[in-house]
Amino acid sequence: MHQSREPHPDQGLPTTPTGPGLIGAQRPAPSALPVPAGAPGGPPAVGGTPAVGGAIGRLADTVEELRRQLDEAQAHAAGRSVVEMAVGVLVERLRCGPTEAAKQLHLLAEQAGSTPLELAAGLVNRAAADKISEAARDFVARAASPASTGVGVRLRNTEADALNAGDAAAAARAMLEHALRPLGAVAVAIWAARPDLSLALAGSAGFAEAEARRWRHVPPGVVTAARRALDERAPVTYRTLADATVPSIGRHEAGGGRVAVPAGVGGRLIGVLEVCWRDELPDWSQSLHRQFEALAELCAATLENWAGDVPEDAPGTGRLDELARLVDGILDPCMVLEPADDGFPPRFVIRHANPAFVDFAGRPTGAVVGSPLLEAYPMAAQEGNLLEAVEDVHATGAPFKDPQMRLTALVDGVPLSTDAYVSISRHGRHVTVLWRLADSTPKIARLLHHAQRLGRIGGFEEDLDTREVVWNDTLFELYGLPPTDRPIALERLADHAHPDDVDAVGRFLRTLLHHRRPASTAFRLQRPDGVTRHIRVVAEPVHDRLERLSAVRGAYQDVSAQHWTEVALAATRDQLAQSEQQAAERHRLVRQLQHAIMPPSAGPRTLNNLDVAVRYRPAEKDHLVGGDWYDALTLPSGQVLLCVGDVAGHGIEAATGMVALRNALRGLAATGAGPAQLLAWLNSVTHHLTDNVTATAVCGLYDPERRRLRWARAGHLPPVLLRGGAAECLPQVDGILLGVIDRADYQESELALEPGDRIVMYTDGLIERRDQGLYASLANLVSLSEAAPREGATALDAHLDHLLRFSGADTDDDTCLVGIEVR
After folding, report:
1. What average pLDDT does the segment 810-817 reach?
2. What is the pLDDT of residue 703?
3. Looking at the chain, which terminus has fewer C-beta neighbours within 10 angstroms, N or C?
4. What's the pLDDT at 421?
5. pLDDT score at 30
6. Residue 634 belongs to what domain range?
7. Structure confidence at residue 735 (pLDDT)
8. Domain shared by 634 and 782, yes or no
9. How many structural domains is the chain composed of?
10. CB of 445 within 8 A of CB of 360?
């Protein structure tokens, strides 16, 4: 149980014994001067013996005692501030003076059985409407224990200590000692968010000095726990930092639980509070969340007035920030260099590049900033080049200008040079380099890089004097070698070529090295991994000022894809030619079959008192050869069989199906059955005896003695009757296509004919058009029939020719016609 004591007569501040859960408790005031260890009245010496080292030991004890007194004074000041705030609340509510309010505070504390400090924290929490009061109320509602009052005391002590200190480092120590150690935390860091998206360590506690100094600046783009909290605008927790994939301060010292809470003012995030544990993170609760929000609010209040205590020459701070803002307004490409160490010669790092910066090697700005100068531009170390000028400016401070400096960069291992106006100046310990490129070299560099990548082109250069060979990265990939291997000289090219290509490689080398003329050849490259690539190599000799052959440069290109494409195309051409030949042969056979059965035209025949003429017009395109057929013959019964049909499809299958149906109908007609029965039988034949064949047909039997025509149709177009100069389509009778179903019934019609009557049976190739319907096409056929010749011995033939000539069909299909005229 806590014990209370009387307050100091001047301050009205209670003193309480220390103990867990009550941070900020007061100790008895020490004497003015500390007593050395081992002296009378002073602290005992270690082990009961005099302090080691005599005067030095006494000095160490004195320093330790002074440190203890300082801690007590700080705790005393924090508690006094909380009590003074509570007295102010009572003055306002009780309408009394400060002395009476202080007495009432102590009286209430005695009646409540608590200390004046605890009661003061409770009064302030109830009167305030901030994060600390919310945290206290939340903890009381959930815990309802004596320790619940301690939360408010700890947070108010932290607030008082942090605000009185006015220093981010002191605020971090106050948070750790008053509020976070009771939660098991061992360290705390306060981060300030900078405009360039970097983080600065404004204050910390619990970390080694070297660790804090190492983390004083976090560059932009480095994902840490604090950066995640800023980006997500919400607290970020880790059960253990060792299991996380993000770096942060104190990873080895406090690699346990970690909490990062964003700190802001007025909706603007200005920093992050990061709390560290040595063990796993405590169970996360709403109470902890409230407490960390309250502490983050204190961080924001501290950072709001923080001017920055990071050294001026630290990366990303002080002078560098000012210099970056200055060069950002320059219209020419400019970068800021900083020496990375104090060695000689200094090693420069590219710290910043302005928005107008253009890398003449074609790389994006992000690939250059942050890299050492010699890593981004290795050729800058050449004598009389960029690095030497930068070192002179940094050493002497004298500005440097060159209206035509030669800048060189490596693009995929190939040197790329350009002339530029260069200006270099020193600003403190930083150096600015401004260049104005003389041509479109960056664009050319990008085009060269993409052309090499897309075309799988590898460049090389071989110095014939030093025997030094330079390859770019693509060439190592073409040879199947790692970039660390030694490039292969031209004289060893034949060792890596297919044996059948050695002669071609020899001719290439003789032309290039002995005749000193540009040369090219194609060969098969045999790689160490067993893969064979088809390569084309082009090279040219390089002469010095004395016209002596000094070097050879050129390029290899992987043309394997092109080679295999040509091989595939050749095979496809052969296969296509063979297919075309087979198709032509099939079409020729179909034509011969159709012409053998149905000649394109046949003169009129007389069957009893009936004149018969037929026409067959094949399709103009061979691949559209179809299955149209006709027949006209006298049966044993004396009747005349007239029929026209069309098998679906084209090609040899349609032609063979047509032959089968035509012959089957002839055989069935010999039985003497009527047209409807013949079509029913022919439907069964089509369904069972052929392979997936369907067809349309119209079948008629003409009785010469009675001059009567009986006819039936199976999905076919109706015949056209021409009588007395007027034409009409015969009324359609029911009948389904042949071959669709196993059994089908067909309707039969009978027509009495008169001398001079003409009837035309036809297939759809005569009338079909793509731009009009069936009824319009039939109407057009009727009109053409009425306009056809009607007199003369060859009038029937002229009638059929007239229909073929003027029908206007545009489907390029086979066409069959059968015309009859009664005498």
Report:
1. 84
2. 94
3. N
4. 86
5. 36
6. 590-822
7. 93
8. yes
9. 5
10. yes
Nearest residue to 74 (alpha-carbon basis) of 174, 159, 150: 174
Q: Are residues 509 and 652 in the same domain?
A: no
598 DSSP 8-state letter: S
Write down the pLDDT at residue 123: 67
| 210's tokens | 């070297």
Q: Tell me the CB-side half-sphere exposure of residue 616, using CA atoms within 13 A.
A: 21
Q: Taking the CB of residue 270, how many other CB atoms lie within 10 A of it? A: 21
Higher pLDDT pick, 392 / 737: 737
CATH assignment of the domain containing 190? 3.30.450.40
Domain boundary among 136, 165, 194: 165
Q: Is 27 exposed, middle or buried (0-12, 13-18, 19+ CB in 10 A)?
A: middle
Give the residue carrying structure tokens 């009550």: 22
In one-letter notation, the amino acid at residue 473 is D
Domain containing 400 — which CATH number?
Answer: 3.30.450.20
CA torsion angle 405 339 308 219 (round to 10) = 80
- Residues 329, 169: Cα–Cα separation, whole Å: 36
Q: Two tokens at 70? A: 């300082």
> pLDDT class for 288, splitting at 50, 70, 90?
confident
Dihedral sign for Cα 91, 94, 95, 100, please. negative
Q: How many CA atoms lie within 13 A of 497 on its CB side?
A: 20
C-alpha R_g of the chain: 53
- Count other Cβ atoms within 10 Å, centred on residue 506: 14
pLDDT, tens digit (0-9, with 9 covering 90-100), for 618-649: 776 655 567 888 888 899 999 999 999 999 88
State whether 78 and 180 are in the same domain: no
Tokens of 428: 């403190």
Put simply, whether the predicted model's pTM sits higher than 0.90 gets the answer no
Q: Give residue 407's pLDDT.
A: 79
**pLDDT, position 33:** 33
For 802-817, b where at least 16 C-beta lie within 10 A, e where not — what string? bbbeebebeeebbbbb
